[in-house]
Design goal:
Number of strands of chain A: 20
Radius of gyration of chain B: 27 Å
Bound molecules: adenosine-5'-triphosphate, magnesium ion
Distance between the termini of chain A: 36 Å
Radius of gyration of chain A: 24 Å
CATH superfamily of the largest domain in chain B: MetI-like
Number of helices of chain B: 14
Pfam family, one (chain A): TOBE
Order of helices and strands of chain B: HHHEEHHHHHHHHHHH
Helix content of chain B: over 70%
Number of domains of chain B: 2
InterPro entries (chain A): AAA+_ATPase, ABC_transporter-like_ATP-bd, ABC_transporter-like_CS, ABC_transpr_MalK-like, ABC_transpr_MalK/UgpC-like, Mo/tungstate-bd_C_term_dom, NA-bd_OB-fold, OB_MalK-like
CATH topology of the largest domain in chain B: MetI-like fold
CATH class of the largest domain in chain A: Alpha Beta
Oligomer: heterodimer
Strand order of the largest sheet of chain B: 1-2
Keywords (chain A): ATP-binding, Nucleotide-binding, Transport
Number of domains of chain A: 2
Number of helices of chain A: 9
Structural class of chain B: mainly alpha
CATH superfamily of the largest domain in chain A: P-loop containing nucleotide triphosphate hydrolases
Largest sheet of chain A: 6 strands, mixed
Protein name (chain A): Sn-glycerol-3-phosphate ABC transporter ATP-binding protein UgpC
Family (chain A): Belongs to the ABC transporter superfamily.
CATH topology of the largest domain in chain A: Rossmann fold
Strand order of the largest sheet of chain A: 6-7-8-3-9-10
Shape of chain A: elongated
Order of helices and strands of chain A: EEEHEEEHHHEHEHEEHHEEEHEEEEEEE
Largest sheet of chain B: 2 strands, antiparallel
CATH class of the largest domain in chain B: Mainly Alpha
Chain lengths: 358, 312
C-alpha cells in the first residue's frame, strides 16, 4: 500500500497536448476517482501511472519512488481493464495465478491466496472455467480477483463497469466499495459516470480537456462546485444555469425575476455590483412555495418519477428543472410558484465560468 | 410482405389444381433445404466426386495408350506392381522427406516473418507487399529463379559462398545438395503463405492481453509462449493443413529446378505420376499412384482435424 503523486504530468502525441500538467497527491489507502467527459485524458493518465504509456513530461511517484522510467512490472500495481483482458486460453484459476507464477511464487503459496480471493469475490465455483464460459459480471469479478491476488501497492481501474447492465453495475459498484473497505489498498478509478464517482470516491478528481477542474470529496464537489463545468457534471438531474446580473444585493435574471444574495455570499460579492454572472441552482434545491424566496414561472413539462416529480418550467428566458415532492403535479401551462433557498444558489463569473461565491 | 402474399397465392393454386410440380412451389422445409442444396451438390459431384471415382476406377484397369490394347479390368495388379517398383518407393520417400523438412521449415520462417510484420511500423505496406510477392509468384517461376541462384558458375549462392571463403558447390550434381537446394526454395516460396495466415491470427489477439501481461510482470519471451503461441494455435493448424497437403503434391519446383535429377534422387510422387500418365501414357498405373497420394493427403487432413477438435 502506498501513496501516489503526479507532479506537472504531461502527455502529448506529437504536437497534440492531451494531459496538460496534472498535479495531484493521493494518500495511502485513499480511493480516488478520476472522472470527466469522454476524451478528457482519464485513461491516458491512468495508463501513464501503469507504465503502459510513456510520460512526456513531469513526474509520477508511487510511494517515494519516481516510476517515470520503470516498466509496468516493476511498479507493483494491478490493473482492471475495461474489457477485462482475461487470458482466453487459461482457466479462471490460471488467470489469477499467472502474475504470481511469473514472480516465482511457489504453488503452495499461490493456492491459498487464490482460494481466499475467490472466496471474497464469490467465484470459487468458477475456478476451472475458461473466460468464454462466464457471464459479463463473472468476468468482471475474475478480473478483480486477478488484481487482488497480487496484493499490489495500488489498484487501477479503467471503467470497469461500463460493459455491465445497469442493475449489475450497481451491484458490482457496492462490491468494489466493500472490497476497498476490506483490503484498504489505494485505488485509482477512472469513470465517466458521476454516480460511480460520487458513490465510490473518498476524493473525486474532475478532469476537463486534460486539466484538473476540481479536486474534492464528493460533498465538496457537490456543494461547492468550482466551475460551471463541475456544477453541470456532478449531480443528476443536472444543475440549472441561467444568466443574471448582480444588482443591489440581489441577482437579477434576464427575465426580470431576482433572488436576494445569501448574507454570506453578499459579503463576498459586494464589490461585484453590476457584474454578469451565471446562476446555478440544483433541481433538488427548489422548495415548496412559501419557504425560501418565491419565484414564479410557467410549467412546461411534468415528469413523475414515483419517488419525486420533475417540473420543467420557464423562468424569463431560461428553462429550469425542479425536483419536488411526488404529490406536486401541476399541469403544463399553469403558472408555478416555487421557492428557492438563497443559501443554495451558486454564482459563477459569466466570463471565466469559475465560482465567485460560497 | 411480398413473400407472404406469394405463399398465399401458391397455396390457393395448390388446393384447386393439383399438378405435381406445385409441390415445389410450396415446399416443406425438408424439400426446400434439398432444393437449395441441389445446385451445390450437383456442382461438387461434377467437379470432385466424379473425377475421384473415375480415378479410382481407372486405377483398377489396364489402360496404357501406348499398348494399343483396349482397357481391361486388372484388379489390384497396378497396386501390386507399385510394391515392387523402387522408383515408386524413392519418389514417395522424397515426397515425405520434402514434407517433413519444408513444412516445419516454412512454419518457423513464416512465424518469424509474421512476428516481424506485426511490429508497429510507421509505414506498413512495404512489409505486407514483401510478404505477398513470394506468395503471388508462380511456383515454376520461383523454381526457375532459384535454379539460377544455385547455378554453379553464375549463381548468387556460390558467389556468396566463395566471397566468404568457402568453395562453391555444384548443387545439381549431387543428390543431397540438389535436394537441399529444392527444400530451401520451397521454404522461401511457401513461408510467406504461412506468414500471411499467422499474421491474420496475430492481429486477432487483443492488445490489452499484452498490457495485462505487462502489468502481471511477464517479459517478452514469456508473453510469446504463454499468450501469443497458444492463441495462434488455430491459425497455425489451418496453415499446416494447407501447407502439408500442397507439400505432398510438390511438383513444380523440383520439376523446373532438377527434373528430378540427378537420376531420380529429387523426383517426387507427383512428378512420377506425371511421368507415367503424360510421358508414358500409362493411365492405369498413373491413376493407382494418384490414389495413393490422395489417401496420403486425406490421412494427414484427418490427423490435423482431430488435433483441432481435441483442442476444442
Ligand atoms: N495514440 C494516440 N495518438 C493520438 N491521440 C491519442 C492517442 N491515444 C489517445 N489519444 C487522444 O487522447 C485523448 C484522451 O484519450 P483518453 O483515452 O485518455 O480519454 P478518456 O478520458 O479515457 O476518454 P473515454 O471516457 O472515452 O475513455 C483523446 O482525445 C484521444 O483521441
Ligand atoms: Mg478511457
Amino acid at each position: 500500500m502506498s501513496s501516489v503523486s503526479f507532479r506537472k504530468l504531461e502527455k502529448s502525441y506529437g504536437s497534440l497536448r492531451i494531459v496538460k500538467g496534472i498535479d495531484l497527491e493521493i494518500a495511502d489507502r485513499e480511493f480516488v476517482v478520476l472522472v470527466g467527459p469522454s476524451g478528457c485524458g482519464k485513461s491516458t493518465t491512468l495508463r501513464m501511472l501503469a507504465g503502459l504509456e510513456s510520460i512526456s513530461d513531469g513526474e509520477i511517484r508511487i510511494g517515494e519512488r519516481v516510476v517515470n522510467k520503470l516498466p509496468p512490472r516493476e511498479r507493483d500495481i494491478a490493473m482492471v481493464f475495461q474489457d477485462y483482458a482475461l487470458y482466453p486460453h487459461k482457466t479462471v484459476y490460471e488467470n489469477m495465478a499467472f502474475s504470481l507464477k511469473v514472480r516465482g511464487i511457489s504453488s503452495a503459496e499461490i493456492k491459498p491466496r487464490i482460494a481466499q480471493a475467490a472466496e471474497m469475490l464469490g467465484i470459487t465455483p468458477l475456478l476451472d472455467r475458461k473466460p468464454s464460459q462466464l457471464s459479463g459480471g463473472q468476468r468482471q469479478r475474475v478480473a478483480m480477483g486477478r488484481a487482488i491476488v497480487r496484493r499490489p501497492q495500488v489498484f487501477l481501474f479503467d471503467e470497469p463497469l461500463s460493459n455491465l447492465d445497469a442493475k449489475l453495475r450497481g451491484q458490482v459498484r457496492t462490491e468494489i466499495k466493500r472490497l476497498h473497505q476490506a483490503i484498504g489498498t489505494t485505488i485509482i478509478y477512472v469513470t465517466h459516470d458521476q454516480v460511480e464517482a460520487m458513490t465510490l470516491a473518498d476524493r473525486i478528481v474532475i478532469l476537463k480537456g486534460g486539466e484538473i477542474e476540481q479536486v474534492g470529496t464528493p460533498d465538496e464537489v457537490y456543494n461547492s462546485p468550482a466551475s460551471v463545468f463541475v456544477g453541470g457534471f456532478i449531480g443528476s438531474p443536472a444543475m440549472n444555469f441561467a444568466k443574471g446580473t448582480i444588482r443591489g444585493g440581489q441577482v437579477t435574471f434576464d427575465g426580470g425575476a431576482g433572488i436576494p444574495l445569501h448574507d454570506h455570499s453578499a459579503g463576498k460579492v459586494g464589490g461585484l455590483e453590476g457584474r454578469d454572472v451565471v446562476v446555478g441552482i440544483r433541481p433538488e434545491h427548489f422548495v415548496p412555495a412559501g419557504e425560501g424566496h418565491a419565484l414564479s414561472g410557467q410549467v412546461q413539462v411534468v415528469e413523475p418519477l414515483g419517488s419525486d416529480t420533475l417540473i420543467h418550467f420557464a423562468l424569463g428566458q431560461s428553462t429550469l428543472t425542479a425536483r419536488v415532492a411526488p404529490e406536486m403535479r401541476p399541469s403544463p401551462g399553469e403558472a408555478l410558484s416555487i421557492g428557492v433557498d438563497p443559501s443554495r444558489v451558486h454564482l459563477f463569473d459569466a466570463a471565466t465560468e469559475r465560482a465567485i461565491a460560497r | 410482405m411480398a413473400t407472404a402474399s406469394e405463399t398465399t397465392l401458391v397455396t390457393t393454386r395448390n388446393e384447386s389444381g393439383t399438378k405435381w410440380w406445385t409441390r415445389f412451389l410450396d415446399p416443406s422445409e425438408g424439400t426446400l433445404a434439398a432444393l437449395l442444396l441441389l445446385p451445390t451438390a450437383l456442382l461438387l459431384t461434377l467437379i470432385i466426386v466424379y473425377p475421384v471415382c473415375r480415378l479410382i476406377w481407372t486405377s483398377f484397369q489396364n489402360l496404357s495408350l501406348t499398348s494399343g490394347l483396349p482397357a481391361s479390368f486388372a484388379g489390384l495388379e497396378n497396386y501390386s506392381l507399385m510394391l515392387d517398383d523402387p522408383v515408386f518407393w524413392e519418389t514417395t520417400w522424397n515426397t515425405v522427406l520434402i514434407t517433413l523438412i519444408t513444412v516445419p521449415g516454412a512454419l518457423l520462417v513464416g512465424l518469424a516473418l509474421a512476428l516481424m510484420a506485426n511490429l508497429p511500423f510507421n509505414v506498413k505496406w512495404p512489409v505486407r507487399l514483401s510478404l505477398l510477392i513470394p506468395w503471388a509468384l508462380p511456383l515454376s517461376f520461383a523454381g526457375l529463379i532459384f535454379a539460377w541462384f544455385f547455378h554453379s558458375e553464375y549463381g548468387v549462392v556460390n558467389d556468396v559462398l566463395r566471397r566468404i571463403g568457402f568453395e562453391g558447390v555444384i548443387w545439381f550434381n549431387s543428390a543431397n545438395w540438389a535436394f537441399a537446394a529444392i527444400c530451401l526454395t520451397i521454404i522461401w516460396k511457401t513461408s510467406s503463405f504461412m506468414a500471411l495466415i499467422i499474421l491474420a491470427g496475430l492481429q486477432t489477439i487483443p492488445r490489452s492481453l499484452y498490457e495485462a501481461a505487462d502489468v502481471d510482470g511477464a517479459g517478452r519471451l514469456r508473453q510469446f509462449f504463454e499468450i501469443t503461441l497458444p492463441l495462434l494455435k488455430p491459425a497455425i493448424v489451418v496453415a499446416l493443413i494447407f501447407r502439408t497437403i500442397t507439400a505432398l503434391q510438390t511438383f513444380d519446383i523440383p520439376f523446373t529446378m532438377t527434373r528430378g535429377g540427378p537420376g531420380t534422387s529429387t523426383a517426387t510422387l507427383a512428378m512420377y505420376i506425371h511421368q507415367n500418365t503424360v510421358d508414358f501414357l500409362d493411365l492405369g498405373y498413373g491413376s493407382a499412384l494418384a490414389v495413393v497420394m490422395f489417401v496420403l493427403s486425406m490421412g494427414v487432413t484427418a490427423v490435423y482435424l482431430r488435433m483441432i477438435r481435441a483442442r476444442g
